[in-house]
Design goal:
Layout lengths: L1 H11 L4 H22 L20 H17 L2 H29 L3 H7 L20 H6 L3 H21 L8
Helix pairs in contact: 2-3, 2-7, 3-4, 3-7
C-alpha cells in the first residue's frame, strides 16, 4: 500500500519552492522527534516513560504524522493531505489501540502512565515523577531510525527533480 501511495504522491505532487520550504516546518521536527524517540524506546522489554515518552505515549507515530503532513505541504496538494488523513485514521488509530492493549497486559503500570501522558498530542511539560534512562545512540542505531531521515531526503530530491527537470523549468516557479 505504501508503494501505491508513493506513486499517487509523485504523480499528483505539484511542488513549488515555497511549498518545499514551508514543508520543512513539519518534516524536520518529525524526523527529529522520531530520532529522539528511537533513542529511548526499548520495545517490549520495559515501559518507556522518559524523554519524548513523558510528553506523548506515541512520539514515533506523531513524528511520522508530522513528516507525512510536511510532505503534503511540499506536494502542494489537498488530495494528498486528505488521503494521508484517511490513511492515518485507518492504519494508525487501530494500531495504537492494539499496542495499548498489549502494553496494558505487559506492564502493570501502563494505566497509570496513560492517565498522565496523552495518547498522541503532547503535553507541553513532561509528566511528573517519570524516571528512567536517557537517550541512547545504540538504540537509535538498533532501530535504524536514520532511515526516516534518508527517506525524507530522497523524497525531497525527487520533488526537486519534479520541480526543476520534469516540469522543464530552468527557474523554479514561486
Amino acid at each position: 500500500m505504501g508503494f501505491v501511495f508513493a506513486l499517487f504522491f509523485l504523480l499528483t505532487a505539484h511542488p513549488s519552492v515555497h511549498s518545499l520550504l514551508w514543508s520543512l516546518l513539519g518534516t524536520v521536527p518529525g524526523v527529529a522527534l522520531r530520532t529522539y524517540a528511537s533513542g529511548y524506546v526499548t520495545k517490549n522489554t520495559e515501559l518507556t516513560t522518559t524523554g519524548p515518552y513523558a510528553h506523548t505515549r506515541n512520539p514515533l507515530y506523531l513524528g511520522s504524522m508530522l513528516i507525512a503532513f510536511g510532505f503534503a505541504v511540499a506536494a502542494h496538494s489537498w488530495w494528498i493531505a486528505l488521503a494521508l488523513a484517511v490513511l492515518f485514521a485507518l492504519i494508525y488509530l487501530p494500531t495504537i489501540r492494539s499496542e495499548e492493549e498489549f502494553l496494558r497486559g505487559q506492564f502493570s503500570d501502563y494505566d497509570e502512565y496513560a492517565k498522565r501522558v496523552p495518547r498522541l498530542l503532547p503535553r507541553l511539560t513532561p509528566a511528573s515523577s517519570l524516571t528512567g534512562g536517557g537517550f541512547s545512540g545504540a538504540l537509535y542505531r538498533k532501530h535504524r531510525e536514520y532511515n526516516a531521515a534518508l527517506g525524507s531526503l530522497t523524497i525531497y530530491a525527487v520533488l526537486l527533480l519534479k520541480l526543476f527537470v520534469w516540469h522543464g523549468a530552468l527557474l523554479p516557479p514561486l
